[in-house]
Protein: SnoaL-like domain-containing protein
Amino acid sequence: MPSRERLNEFIAVVESGDHAGAIERYYTEDASMQENAAPPRVGRDVLVARERGILAQMSHVYSKAMSSVVEGDRVAIHWIFELTDKSGGKRRVDEVAVQEWRGDRIFRERFFYDPSRPKT
Structure:
């Protein structure tokens, strides 16, 4: 079960822009991530590689946790992400991440957001 301090550390790493580093340090080796109803991606190495690939396409990423809740091994975080790709296209993602923790690491995460939001 994560402590509030551990969760706050995780949030701070994401907000600093080190998304791939957050996965490396805070996820279990067998962790999974799932976008809405899509099939989950499994394995920390797979998750890190995908995150690095996405970030490589961006010129700027802003990440802000608006609120978070810890309830035993379950965590919910309301995130706002503002992404600017290298061609200047911008997208704002208003997302809720629901996580299940094993000890002090995330082993399952599912993201809920509106995938139809157009780029601005």
Residues 44-56 form the longest helix (13 residues). The chain has one domain: 4-112.
